[in-house]
Amino acid sequence: MFVRPATPEESLDVRRILDAAMLEPGDVEARIENGDVLVAGDRRDGSADGTAGTDRILGTVVLEPLPDERGAHVASIGVRRRHRDRGLGSALIDRALERERRLTARFDDSVRPFYERLGFTIEAIDDRRHRGVAVQGDDD
């Protein structure tokens, strides 16, 4: 598995993953250009004729820089349905936290366990929505 910044050529893959999750990613191309989109996936082997393998994009996270605070906001995160529960979402958040040192997120009750497992401090916004914050290095 790999996690790395998305390339401009991968914007369609990023959009497809987020569209399938019914998420609004905004201007993906601009965010990729700014380095605010990470992708996760695996590598398909090359063929017997010696052609190079290709990266298969299976998940993505779109980050928004926080203008008045350090860190970034998780604007969207998605993993292809058939590849969920394999650690791709966790790897994306881990890499984003490693890079940004602080992440915020807003999310529905249905995905609260995901953010809890990743160590986010969570507070309720209302009956169904939550906000969370994760900070790397608090216990160093």
Rg for CA atoms: 16 Å
Count the beta strands: 7
By secondary-structure content and strand pairing, the structural class works out as alpha+beta
Large-scale geometry: globular
Beta strand %? 35-45%
Strand order of the largest sheet: 1-2-3-4-5-7-6
Q: Give a short account of the largest sheet.
A: 7 strands, mixed
Separate helix tally: 4
User: Which spans of ≥5 residues are poorly predicted at pLDDT below 50?
Assistant: none
Give the N-terminus to C-terminus distance in angstroms.
28 Å
H/E series: EHHEEEHEHEE
In percent, how helical is the residue content?
Answer: 25-40%
- Rounded average pLDDT: 90
Describe this structure in words.
- With 140 residues, this protein is α+β, with helices and mostly antiparallel strands.
- The protein is 25% helix and 36% strand.
- It contains four helices and seven strands, in the order E-H-H-E-E-E-H-E-H-E-E.
- A seven-stranded mixed β-sheet has the order 1-2-3-4-5-7-6.
- A hairpin with a 4-residue loop joins strand 6 (121-124) and strand 7 (129-135).
- The longest helix is centred in the last third of the chain and has 13 residues, at 88-100.
- The chain is globular and about 45 Å long.
- The two termini are 28 Å apart.
Descriptors:
single chain, 140 residues, alpha+beta, 4 helices, 25% helix, 36% strand, globular
Helix and strand arrangement:
Blueprint: E1 2-5, H1 11-20, H2 28-33, E2 37-44, E3 54-65, E4 72-79, H3 88-100, E5 102-108, H4 112-117, E6 121-124, E7 129-135
Parallel strand pairs: 4-5
Antiparallel strand pairs: 1-2, 2-3, 3-4, 5-7, 6-7
